[in-house]
Amino acid sequence: MLTSNYRFDELSMRSLLSADKNFLYCHAEGCSSGQIHDTGVEGPIFRCTACGYRMCTAHDPIVPFHENEACTQYNERIAQEIAQAEEDEERERNQQEEEARIRRQHEAASAAEVAKSSVECPGCGVQIQKTKGCDHMTCGRNGCGFQFCYVCRAPYTGEHGIFRVGNLAHSPTCRYHSTRLPNFVDLDVESSDGGDYDEDLDDEDEDDEILRAAIRRSE
């Protein structure tokens, strides 16, 4: 009970003192003490009676006491430190921006180089670069596995894929398109007597005629 009364009296006294314009709280970390300081600019050094921390009240806001340094010197030093800090911050910001610009340039150059030496998977869009092997590609990205021609990106699967349609599924400009293969036989090629293929030939005769035309073209 005595403790509660003492605490109440202490708070009441603090409330009364804090109403005084000369009452100052100590700025030391962890100290909640305060006292009346009425010496003004003639005696600007505030010393906390509880913890001994000193402050200079000649500044607004109040600052820690500056040993062996006049208030004008302190103000000049703080102004220089602030200016230097701002200059350092601006220099660091400019450096970061320059590094970011160079990094973007390198990334763009790298992306351009990858784009020149790779193709985009038609299934997922990831860039794929072939280092060796045939042009039948299978995307290795997890969950994709799309199969396509590295030259023209024609799909191998699906209704119009190479597995189902054959080499005609390749792009007409692709070297694997049927019309560009060495042994391709055009159904409109002329026969040996200068005429067109007989449209009335049955399947077996037509196959024989195509084979003979292929032999003639290879000779």
Automatic annotation (TrEMBL):
Keywords: Metal-binding, Repeat, Transferase, Ubl conjugation pathway, Zinc, Zinc-finger
Region listing for Disordered, in residue ranges: 85-104
Residues in the signal sequence: none
Catalytic reactions on record: [E2 ubiquitin-conjugating enzyme]-S-ubiquitinyl-L-cysteine + [acceptor protein]-L-lysine = [E2 ubiquitin-conjugating enzyme]-L-cysteine + [acceptor protein]-N(6)-ubiquitinyl-L-lysine
Enzyme Commission identifier(s): 2.3.2.31
InterPro entries listed in its UniProt record: E3_UB_ligase_RBR, IBR_dom, TRIAD_supradom
Limits of the RING-type domain: 1-174
Regions of compositional bias (Basic and acidic residues) in chain numbering: 91-104
GO molecular function: ubiquitin protein ligase activity; zinc ion binding
GO BP: any one term: protein ubiquitination
UniProt xrefs under Gene3D superfamilies: 1.20.120.1750
PANTHER family associated with the record: RBR FAMILY RING FINGER AND IBR DOMAIN-CONTAINING
Official protein name in the record: RBR-type E3 ubiquitin transferase
Organism: Alternaria tenuissima
